[in-house]
Amino acid sequence: MAPDYTTDVPADTVQPASVMRSTAATWAGVVLSLLTLITWVAFDVYDDRTVIIKNEQDRLLTQARVIETNLEHQTASVARVLRTLATAPVDDGMNRRLSELCQAMPGIRTLLFLDRAGRVVASSRQEILQRDFSARDYFSIPRKQQRLETLYVSPPFTAVTGKFVINLSVMIPGRDGSFDGVVGATLDPDYFAVLLRSVHFTSSGMWSSIVHGDGLMFIMIPETAGAQVTSVAVPGTFYTRHITSSKSENVFSGTSGISGTRRIIAMKTFNPSGLQLSKPLIIAVSRDAAAVLADWRRESLFKGLAILLLTGFISLGTLYLLRRKRFFEQQELQLLEQQVATRHETRIAQESQKNNALIQAILESTSSAIFSLDTSFCYTTFNHAHAKFMKALYGADIEKGGCLLDYMTPDDAAVAKSSLERAMNGEVFVFEEEFGGDDRDRTWFEISQNQIMADDGSISGVAVFAIETTERRRLINALQETNELFDLFLLHSPIYAFIKEVTATESRVLRFSRNYETWIGLPSSELIGRSMAELFPAELARRIHEEDRGVVSSGEVLRIEEEVGGRLYNTIKFPIIKEDASLVAGYTIDITESRQAEKELKKKNAEIEQFIYTVSHDLRSPLVTVKTFLGYLECDLTTGDQGADHTGPAVYARGHRQDEDAAG
């Protein structure tokens, strides 16, 4: 490891790690403090906003409840009047009574009776008497549904007076309970406008409205152009969100489809259970979110500017303090430089000696030859192993400054010089070569050479690493000789020899004897690596592969006699044990001629046996005759009968009969 001279470097070029850590820690503390302050202020600002919005929502919802309470009283009064009138007879004084009721009930603009045909038969307004309003919803819907207990709320419409109104109506029952007309009341929008304005606690972006249950605006304060003819029953509006929530009251924040501004709105469904309204009314009280948060924005901006100014002040103060601290630390570093300067060169020299000693120890720790040369091929350093090799190879006692080439034989010096010049020219390579004197054994070395660069970038020499490889070279030569001998065996073998690698799917050629070229019809260079399917017909290739797999799996020798191409072959296969592969070796002998010779020999043996049988049969009759004749002679000599007929014909006749009996 290289020595650490950090403390010896001038103060104007290096800042100690402790100073850097101190500066980083100071800034980290300042940043952390500022982030904590900013986080706290941001949380406080956000909390203020949440509280303001929540208070505003509660306030708007309270105003909506006020409208609901007022509207409930008014609607209940109208419902009682209408249900009372529905049972009263229509006489000549009914118009006057209706007019008096309108004047007595705030919020009612018109009261009227319609007969079963939809014609006005009584009204608080004389100008609409006898008019046909059968097409109006407040008449047509009750006539269609005929529910006596229901208070029908018509969609907003433009009355004959030009006002945009809503009618409340109930069915007039006949004597048999059937539909006999409608009594209705037209709500006065001016009254409800006053009611809606009464809940406005500020003029800053506040509005309120009443919407029919079908989504058509009845009244909106302040009035907005087009609002009363626009249905709000479309996806995404406050009305739709309120209706789909199935809640009686809601508070929302978002962009209004009418004004296009961001608003806070409280909505409440008006549908008292005792009134049995045919359609509910939706009460909405809203305020512009920007107006609600105006004071909060001003306060947040003030807090943000205060934090920004505080951050700048603290940062500038910290920077000033750190620079002052850095100035004093640099003064200390300059004093440290003066103290270190007197020891610097001594320490470098000591470290250099230690490094040289360490390098030399490393060089001597290996049995490989290591040395370096200058550009004149003279030694600058070498280890003991190299000196020992030079002594053994050339009988030379080398020394620093001596020229390597002078110690070597001329031939070896020429080889060494050529490779060293290549290395000095920047070529990095490894080569193997043999060196040694004429009267000594030659020694092989694997040599690596690298150029040595000086500090100025010039080439100062070359470093050489040499490992003795004589024994490895001998093994390689022996292996090459063995391979050559095996190749000669395969080249000149009179029998078909082979080695194959066997897998689950195929048998593939590793080595074939040369005579396979004639049998298969391909040069030996093209046989290596081929599968059986590439060399033989499909069925034969499949059978050969199955035989090879059987030999590998069983580990036993297989002997096969088979006919291929009209000739007979005897094949012996046996497994070769190898850890990383399954191999099968064997040989095949052509036994066609020997089988033919065997057949010829059997044929000759049969002919000889037939000949022997014939000769044996031909010799049997004379022998039997002689044997018979000798028997008679023996009998005559025994009995003493010398007068018997022993002539040839008689003896032949008796011998022939005996021969026939024997052949029987």
Q: What can you tell me about this protein's structure?
A:
The protein is an alpha+beta fold and 664 residues long. Helices cover 50% and strands 22% of the residues. The chain is built from 17 helices and 22 strands. The chain has helices at residues 17-86, 94-104, 137-145, 189-198, 238-245, 289-292, 294-364, 384-394, 404-407, 410-424, 470-492, 516-520, 524-527, 532-535, 538-554, 592-639, 648-663; strands at 108-114, 120-123, 152-153, 157-158, 164-165, 167-173, 179-187, 206-212, 217-221, 249-255, 262-270, 281-288, 369-374, 379-382, 429-435, 443-453, 459-468, 496-502, 507-512, 558-564, 567-576, 583-590. Strands 2-1-7-6-3 form a 5-stranded antiparallel sheet, with helices on both faces. A 5-stranded antiparallel sheet has the order 9-8-12-11-10, with helices on both faces. The chain has a 5-stranded antiparallel sheet with strand order 14-13-17-16-15. A hairpin with a 5-residue loop joins strand 6 (167-173) and strand 7. Helix 1 (17-86) packs antiparallel against helix 7 and helix 16 (592-639) crosses helix 17. The longest helix has 71 residues, at 294-364. 20% of the residues are buried. Mean pLDDT is 82; it is low at 1-14.
